[in-house]
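4.2 Preliminary Data

To establish feasibility before requesting continued support, the project team ran the inverse folding procedure on a target of 720 residues. The structure was first converted into the token representation described in Section 3, and no sequence information of any kind was made available to the design step. The complete token record follows.
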């Protein structure tokens, strides 16, 4: 027919109009083709209504084209079902909507106009000229280039189609608030106001095992339409008054069975509620109103009531039996979506709790730390395996870690927690960063081994990790990386840039790709800033990864030495995180402080029989200058003497003795070239072996061993 668009036209409007051509008479097609004459549009519509073509009663699809100002440029609403919907060329599209829907729909239209991403299957009402309303399924599409603007497709909602479309729309989100909002918007087709009130346990994601025996604690999860409600009315996020929760829970559980109830008019509602305060809280508006309350029930033995859906309408439009059946069917079909959202809320809460536990604390006297974690999406599906942590090691150093575990959700969170805790234990036991990564590499391989039963359908192969250990005495950092992006170092008197870390495959790489992990040591004088991060912070589709790292270096350089670190970390993330975030973002900032030169002393002694006496003399003189109490001084002298004696007895080569004055005590370290590990074993009555370690164990708060390239260091902490 003449109304069929040419093949060169590829706009959504033209494709819809072409599909409608077989139903459109010549006059209607002219209007669809874009007549600029509003009267012509009206006349064509009148001709269609007066002389419907055979089969046209089945037509329920229409289309409207909008310019960038959201004004109608073309329309194809000539089917009889759209009678009275006055889509006049040049008028605003939102003039077709009920006033309370205008802000929400305008927001959706502008969003599609800006991003180009379609918004589909929104259940929407359109106003007719006689004051009635038409329920449609509305989809918003960006116009195809070179045209600008939008195409809005409208499907008039027959009842069964409405139920199908509503169920489809409600199941698209795993967020409780969005799921409840979608359900409320679908229920609006049967009334003037719709509300969803959920059990507080559902809202928080708690486990529901059976129907509550007492009253249900209800919280409002959704309310439509979006309008300015009077003071005192319960809006989303508010808890219903206790007596209102009791009344609703008793009503929907009459005779111990969840069922829908209808209160037909204002007088009956006021009589049931029994209080002007409850009327103000629950009844939308002053006009006479009736309400249908439909419970959201999760099938089971016994069934569990998740909440209640309320549909309010004017008293002159009473609910008939078929409408109540449709309401109950829709709510019954979608209750499991609400429960799925509850389960994901529970998972989301657990994963976030774990990730917050791994975020760094504020640091100590030798280092300041701050961390930011920003998930890509608010729901649990977007909570991934990014993690960062910092913690003091028992020998006075500080460990900084950041990692990115493959995947999302609880599987990634469990692996993330396991790797983080294993790394912390190994670092605290004195292993170097490269040795820790070797153990983590083996752990990831074991987790992916189906024979161990630990994989459970989840693979962590390819996860990345970076570990840095800061020594506040030497002001050096030892760093190892497994496939992770290089940290950014901002020295106090030089340009910022990435640390030159040798690239390495991620954890769990194939055996042929595995290489020894390197340790990269570099100076970090007091005032230096080290930034560890995950790829979500620097990845941008419009930039190369090197440009993203360069932007991070610039942002980190802008952090002033006197800036509070936590606000500075948030500013860096805000400046760099992409507007449309596709991945989780994690940033760990560490400002090196170190010990003052006067709080440390280091001596090198030959491994001779008089080494212990020489160490006591040197340590005693230093403790005198530090004005340490006599009882603490005696303990430190004895500990230093025993550690040096053991080093002379069991190791070769020169000894290094180091004493550090910390904020909580004194740390004594003795380094040697031996490879044996001192152990505190059981001792018989006449066994003299191991007496020195028992003395050290009794006088210190903690002691341990860490390994170096040339041997080991035995350290012991004495409280002041």
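Position-by-position output of the design step:
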């Amino acid at each position: 027919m003449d109304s069929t668009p040419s093949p060169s036209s590829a706009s959504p409007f033209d494709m819809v109009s072409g599909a409608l051509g077989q139903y459109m008479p010549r006059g209607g097609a002219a209007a669809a083709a874009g007549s600029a004459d509003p009267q012509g549009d009206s006349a064509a519509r009148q001709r269609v209504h007066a002389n419907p073509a055979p089969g046209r009663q089945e037509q329920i699809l229409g289309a409207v084209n909008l310019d960038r100002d959201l004004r109608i440029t073309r329309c194809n609403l000539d089917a009889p079902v759209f009678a009275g919907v006055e889509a006049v060329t040049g008028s605003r599209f939102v003039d077709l909507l009920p006033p309370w829907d205008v802000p929400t729909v305008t927001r959706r239209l502008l969003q599609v106009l800006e991003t180009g991403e379609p918004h589909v299957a929104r259940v929407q009402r359109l106003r007719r000229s006689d004051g009635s309303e038409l329920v449609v399924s509305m989809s918003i599409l960006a116009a195809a280039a070179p045209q600008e603007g939008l195409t809005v497709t409208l499907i008039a909602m027959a009842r069964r189609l409405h139920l199908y479309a509503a169920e489809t729309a409600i199941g698209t989100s795993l967020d409780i608030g969005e799921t409840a909002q979608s359900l409320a918007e679908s229920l609006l087709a049967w009334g003037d106001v719709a509300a969803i009130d959920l059990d507080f346990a559902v809202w928080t994601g708690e486990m529901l095992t059976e129907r509550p025996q007492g009253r249900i604690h209800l919280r409002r999860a959704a309310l439509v339409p979006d309008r300015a409600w009077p003071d005192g009315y319960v809006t989303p996020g508010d808890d219903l008054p206790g007596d209102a929760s009791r009344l609703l829970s008793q009503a929907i559980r009459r005779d111990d069975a969840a069922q829908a109830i209808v209160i037909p008019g204002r007088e009956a509602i006021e009589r049931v509620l029994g209080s002007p305060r409850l009327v103000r809280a629950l009844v939308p508006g002053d006009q006479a109103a009736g309400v249908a309350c439909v419970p959201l029930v999760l099938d089971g033995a016994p069934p569990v009531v998740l909440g209640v859906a309320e549909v309010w309408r004017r008293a002159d439009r009473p609910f008939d039996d078929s409408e109540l059946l449709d309401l109950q069917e829709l709510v019954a079909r979608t209750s499991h979506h609400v429960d799925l959202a509850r389960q994901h809320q529970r998972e989301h809460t657990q994963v976030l709790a774990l990730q917050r536990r791994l975020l760094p604390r504020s640091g100590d006297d030798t280092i300041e730390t701050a961390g930011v974690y920003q998930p890509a999406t608010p729901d649990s599906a977007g909570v991934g395996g990014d993690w960062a942590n910092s913690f003091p090691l028992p020998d006075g150093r500080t460990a900084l870690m950041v990692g990115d575990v493959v995947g999302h959700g609880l599987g990634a969170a469990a692996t993330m927690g396991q790797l983080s805790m294993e790394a912390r234990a190994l670092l605290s036991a004195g292993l170097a960063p490269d040795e820790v990564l070797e153990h983590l590499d083996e752990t990831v391989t074991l987790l992916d081994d189906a024979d161990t039963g630990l994989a459970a359908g989840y693979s962590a192969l390819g996860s990345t990790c970076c570990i840095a250990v800061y020594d506040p005495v030497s002001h050096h950092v030892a760093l190892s990386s497994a496939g992770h992006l290089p940290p950014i170092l901002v020295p106090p008197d030089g340009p910022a840039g990435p640390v030159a870390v040798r690239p390495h495959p991620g954890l769990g790489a194939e055996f042929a790709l595995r290489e020894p992990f390197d340790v990269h040591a570099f100076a970090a004088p007091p005032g230096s800033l080290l930034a560890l991060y995950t790829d979500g912070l620097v990845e941008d589709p419009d930039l190369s990864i090197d440009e993203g790292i360069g932007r991070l270096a610039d942002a980190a350089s802008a952090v002033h030495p006197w800036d509070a670190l936590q606000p500075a970390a948030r500013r860096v993330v805000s400046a760099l995180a992409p507007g449309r975030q596709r991945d989780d973002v994690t940033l760990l900032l560490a400002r090196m402080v170190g010990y003052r030169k006067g709080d440390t002393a280091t001596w090198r002694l030959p491994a001779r029989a008089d080494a212990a006496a020489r160490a006591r003399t040197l340590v005693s003189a230093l403790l005198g200058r530090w004005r340490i109490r006599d009882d603490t001084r005696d303990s430190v002298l004895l500990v230093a003497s025993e550690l040096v004696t053991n080093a002379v007895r069991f190791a070769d080569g020169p000894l290094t003795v180091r004493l550090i004055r910390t904020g909580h005590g004194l740390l004594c370290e003795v380094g040697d070239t031996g490879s044996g590990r001192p152990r505190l074993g059981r001792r018989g009555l006449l066994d003299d072996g191991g007496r020195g370690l028992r003395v050290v164990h009794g006088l210190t708060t903690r002691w341990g061993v860490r390994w170096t390239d040339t041997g080991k260091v035995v350290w012991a902490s004495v409280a002041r």
